[in-house]
Amino acid sequence: MTRRLYALCGTDRTRPFSPHVWKTKLSLAHKGLDFDVAPGGFTEIPKLERGATTIVPLLRDGDILVSDSFEIALYLEATYRERPTLFGGEGGKATARFVEGWSQTTLHPAIGRIAIMDIHDRLDPVDQAYFRQSREQRFGKPLEAVAEAGQADLEAFSAKLEPLRHMLKFQPFLGGDRPLFADYIVFGALQWARIVSRQRLLADGDVVTDWFERCLDLHDGLGRSVTAA
Length: 229
What we know:
Elements: E1 3-8, H1 19-30, E2 36-40, E3 58-61, E4 64-67, H2 69-79, H3 90-114, H4 116-121, H5 125-139, H6 143-160, H7 162-167, H8 181-196, H9 207-221
Parallel strand pairs: 1-2
Antiparallel strand pairs: 1-3, 3-4
């Protein structure tokens, strides 16, 4: 059976960059499941699978369609119980929900502002128009003004990683000795930045940098299959 993972990309179809898609790519690899990636731009998403979703990732597994990275992880855990766990039990699911909330309310907004023009410039023209209109409506200002404000986010970004930095003093992964879905959540955010922007968010010698490098090496170096910007 061929699984298909629909992913978000820019003009270069070989460089999917969505943080949520990267969570799912590593989740599928964690479970040892084969899949093909079907890349597309922002304006193509509503057309996928006859309008099945407005977001990616979208996973087709046989006759089943699942969207949203967390819902896909839950689906994979329930469907492929005999394969390595993504959560390590109900406590792991609850922890992953907390990590997701922290990542999406703390890391994602900062990275979005830091990299906003980098993302725009990597898109096809039709997607650039959509991205500019939707993001300027969201932020209430031109993209260029958002990017200018993003310089403050860049300077403050390291401090936002302090909860992760503290945990990694005691264990190599958020999941403990081995990675779990919680690791993939945070990895997805930093992988997004790595792929779209030349801005350096992680410093040499930081335990978070060491953790991120370990995550890039997971599953035969899946994270390194797309080079840094």
